[in-house]
Hints:
This protein is an alpha+beta fold. It has 2 domains: 4-37, no CATH class; 47-111, SUI1-like domain (Translation Initiation Factor Eif1, 2-Layer Sandwich), CATH 3.30.780. It has helices spanning 31-37, 70-84, 102-111; strands at 11-12, 16-17, 47-51, 60-64, 88-91, 94-98. A hairpin with an 8-residue loop joins strand 3 and strand 4. 11% of the residues are buried.
Amino acid sequence: MKDIADSHPVYSTDSGSICPDCSKPVKGCVCRELRRNALPEVSGKVKIRHETAGRKNKGVTIIYGLPLSQEQLEKLAMKLKSTFGTGGTVKDRAIELQGDQREKAAVELRRLDYSV
């Protein structure tokens, strides 16, 4: 059973919804922005794989293990997409590029001094 001292408000009539992490109003909360800009703990090697599962047999190249913030990942993804002339996105701290771009991505990331 939860102790009353461990509980926190989830809504206030004065300020609306309350962030569960910092107990500040959601409009003034900085937790989400801090998590977005935090650098992930990674092994040091960038990994590249090709997946088709769950994509109606259309392959995507997934680049993960990059020691970059979300904003930096989005900038790198934009650069890779324009270099390769393909579409893609950033999901779950990984860059997804349409098609089999493994070789091109490995060459480009090595050129940018990443260990692939």
